# Entry
Amino acid sequence: MEIGLVELSRLQFAMTAMYHFLFVPLTLGLSIIVAIMETVYVMTNRPIWRQMTKFWGTLFGINFVLGVATGITMEFQFGMNWSYYSHYVGDIFGAPLAIEGMMAFFLEATFVGLFFFGWDKLSKRGHLTVTWLVAIGSNFSALWILIANGWMQHPVGAVFNPVTMRMEMTSFYEVVFNGVAQAKFVHTVSAGYVTASVFVLGVSSWYLLKGRHIDLAKRSIAIACSFGLASALSVIVLGDESGYDATLNQKMKLAAIEGMWNTEPAPASFTLIGFPDNEARETHYAVHIPAMMGLIGTRSLNTVIPGVNELVAKAEDSIRRGIVAYDGLMQIRAAKGEVSPEVKAKFEENSDDLGYAFLLKRYVDDPRQATEAQIVKAANDTVPLVWPIFWAFRFMVGLGFAFLAVMLYFFYRANWRNMTFPRPALWMAVLIIPTPWIAAELGWFVSEFGRQPWTVDGVLPTALSVSNLTIADLLITLAGFVTFYSVLFVVEMALMLKFIRKGPYMDVAETATWKLKHEHRLSTHDGNVPGANATPAE
# Structure
């Protein structure tokens, strides 16, 4: 297998996946924020809230359309660049992916259309129901793709069939309620809520700096900082849950995140900063916080977290058992399944480690012919490149706590300082608009790069998953994707900036009607007609 083919296939999929994920967090968060705004409109009947719903809904729509378009391309890549992966695990991976597609196209797309074109055709409560269905559909669409990804991180509810050479589902329930998948879902969705909150906060702050749409901006900030504060807290709590799951199911990834080469006595310390070195198997100039990693990773003081070197030694043992399983597999296939009970029992006893034997395919066609040196080399391949994961994780966590601080500050100013915000704080809110996307992309990088060398952890190595393409094929399509996605990015930014500069559309007739009704109601109560003092935003 050409290493260039594997690397280019990974690069192409990483580029398309991470570009697609630029749209996902904002879609998830804005759908909920828009639904909250319309709920307030239906409850209060104040035109300003309808205006807010339409304005932020327009930005949601632009983002949603481009997200769907880039998602389609990504799904086709499974068959195009990762055909053996699709064959090997398609029975499991295909089901949640198909449901996600139906959610996106049948549920989300239908109700998104009703959201934009149903304002004058549906009742207020009917349109509100549609808006909430858009939000629920968007979030459930993310659930199914994260179930598929969670299974790749922690494959459960499936067994390998030696006759068909495929993984086959044994329990749809286990696949859906996989603990890793559920933790990834709630953490990713909460990160999307933070992204949308920072976006709404930043755009609204820009309006305040420019002295435009003051009423809309202040109310949007009130929603954004309240929703964002709760979301930022949940991201931190649920991120801790994801770390705990990694301790149970992806020990090598956790060791790489920590730059922990050697197993420490419990409770393990947390490496605050340092410079991991894969060659020397050492983290230089490390600054440690005693016992913190043990508490975070195991929630105990006496559970040991294994280091990289210990995990490599265990990988060697798994490879040796995998070779036994591979030998049984070849006998079963040669006899077309008609083998002695002893051979079958020997295969089943070691089948959980078959994927480790496949790691040897990079060095030898038949893993049974592998030398000791090749076994050691394959075991060392289970160690990902540590320093990118180590630093990406720390930048992500640092940004997470920064978002919490920003939301807490604006929540305080909105509720206890009469919605007054210093200009430096408003400029800060504008400048940090891109940072939630950076944090989200770093999170995906840690999750996916930290799983290497596996496409499906412990089951299928990445080097075996790729399609039989040429380097030229990949370079041409990679260049095409980069060009096409760059154009889409320019279109996205141009449309978003155009509608932000344009600002919200004000329904003059509805505003005037509401103002008259409001004045009449006040005059009925106290005999006064406040006329000049009433504003559409009240």
Notes: The chain is about 70% helix and 5% strand. The chain has two domains: 3-250+385-502, 308-380. Residues 260 and 376 are 20 Å apart (CA to CA). Strands lie at 158-161, 166-169, 270-277, 282-289, 454-456, 460-461.
